[in-house]
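Field log, afternoon session.

UNIT: design team B
ACTIVITY: writing a sequence onto a fixed backbone
BACKBONE:
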């Protein structure tokens, strides 16, 4: 349950607060990364991410709403991708490595803007908190502040940091020219963004007219039960492909995309499916006829 004070926050005041918090969080993270220096981009990313999450965790406890942290997932990676692109350019010429950094920054920005906008459209303000957080508060054998720290803030910090390490690896390698693997990575990234966008548009249209118990089984949702999660996984795997293009010996950075995939299959998807099964009588029929993630290309 939200703290009593949050009920007085209008939507515009709530977003003004979010904007102020994220200006501070992003600025602080990039300042820390700058102090650490461009010789250690991964270290700068890790410490910058950690500091921003610590700040936003404290803010969430003050206002009593974990959803103040929701936008972090889609704001911080593009901020660092742009920063890497600006501060790690090869002097004297626009190289293939510069083009790769620019491609990552553009793809990350498109992904981040789309995901942040989708969150903002659905967030009514500090009177609303993600249902998954409320479920954890009610079921976890810990105080609310501890659940918020471990599950709402720390776990995403670990997973998104692992997923973002490839950006630091890409930024620190300048030897290989822009090639076929880079083009493939761009295609996968933009495909992921498009999948998420069209899936969310379908979901928004459905939510405007749905009745209790209805199942969304049109558009992309007729071919996959979780096309939005598929799009998100495409984005993180595209960073791994960029890593292979920049430096194949850094294949270990694929642990980030793997961690994201495990999170979706082990946590996000089971939680969403359990909730749907409980609330939608037609879910089992839909589940039997529709693939979980990888889409059915032909109806």
């Amino acid at each position: 349950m939200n703290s009593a004070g949050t009920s007085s926050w209008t939507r515009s005041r709530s977003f003004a607060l979010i904007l102020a918090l994220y200006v501070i969080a992003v600025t602080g993270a990039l300042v820390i990364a700058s102090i650490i220096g461009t010789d250690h981009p991964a270290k700068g990313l890790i410490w910058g991410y950690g500091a921003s999450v610590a700040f936003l965790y404290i803010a969430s406890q003050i206002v009593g709403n974990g959803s103040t942290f929701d936008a972090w997932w889609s704001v911080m990676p593009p901020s660092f991708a742009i920063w890497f692109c600006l501060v790690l350019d090869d002097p004297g010429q626009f190289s293939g490595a510069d083009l790769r950094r620019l491609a990552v920054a553009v793809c990350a920005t498109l992904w981040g803007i789309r995901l942040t906008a989708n969150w903002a459209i659905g967030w009514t303000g500090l009177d609303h908190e993600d249902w998954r957080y409320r479920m954890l508060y009610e079921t976890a054998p810990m105080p609310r502040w501890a659940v918020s720290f471990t599950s709402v803030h720390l776990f995403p910090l670990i997973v998104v940091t692992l997923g973002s390490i490839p950006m630091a690896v890409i930024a620190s390698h300048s030897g290989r020219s822009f090639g076929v693997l880079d083009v493939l990575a761009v295609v996968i990234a933009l495909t992921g963004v498009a999948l998420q966008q069209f899936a969310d548009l379908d979901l928004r249209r459905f939510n405007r007219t749905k009745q209790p118990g209805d199942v969304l089984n049109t558009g992309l949702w007729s071919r996959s039960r979780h096309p939005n999660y598929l799009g998100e996984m495409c984005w993180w795997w595209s960073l791994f492909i960029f890593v292979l293009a920049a430096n194949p010996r850094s294949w270990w950075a694929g642990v980030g995309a793997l961690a994201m995939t495990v999170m979706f299959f082990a946590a996000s998807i089971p939680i969403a499916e359990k909730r749907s099964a409980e609330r939608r009588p037609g879910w089992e029929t839909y589940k039997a006829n529709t693939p979980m993630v990888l889409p059915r290309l032909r109806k």
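LOG NOTE: The radius of gyration is 20 Å.
NEXT ACTIVITY: expression trials, pending approval
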